[in-house]
User: Fold NUDIX domain-containing protein from Paenibacillus chondroitinus.
Amino acid sequence: MNKSEEMFDIYDEKMNWLGQAPRSEVHAKGLWHATFQCWIVSLESENPALLLQLRHPDKDLFPNLLDISCAGHLAAGETVQDGAREMKEELGLSVDFNELVPCGLFAEEDLMSDHLIDREFCHVFIYRCDQSLDKYVLQADEVTGLFKVSAAGLERLVHGEIGELKAEGYRTGGNGQLEETSLLVSLNDLVPHPAAYYDLVFQTLRKHALFV
Assistant:
């Protein structure tokens, strides 16, 4: 472990706290740890849209894939409430934790290789923000793009009802400036999450009349 490596709280499969371990060990051994995840829903247009961030190519997990609007590991000693800092760090949004709509806790396992196992207790939230995409301030070493997709379309995509979905937004160009662009997104372009994870998000959106 190098001195600057992040430390995480680790848990057993029933979320009993076991201690702390460095990030590299947590992912190498598949130790359970906690993350903060927030989906931003925009009602700027007539149809509800969800925001997807494009992960930086240097990320150790799922580089260059589209993912949750804002997400991050909780460092050792941090509470779920502390996770709201990710909104400011990654997207430039000053958000009070009490403004977030909780979806609940989702335990997720990704067995990517014999040497990389990601087991997360995901604390999942929703935040409504109707500002245009060009108003977000992206964390350059974490996020290289931000895209908007139809919420209804994403639900159909993750359930296999359609094969691809149009995403519109911005990505970082060669000069470091954000450039407007659009993509056709398939499941292979998304960080893999089970359909049950997405269902948790969509059920909460419907419950709070943010999606029909």
Observations:
- The two ends are 48 Å apart (CA to CA).
- The mean pLDDT is 93.
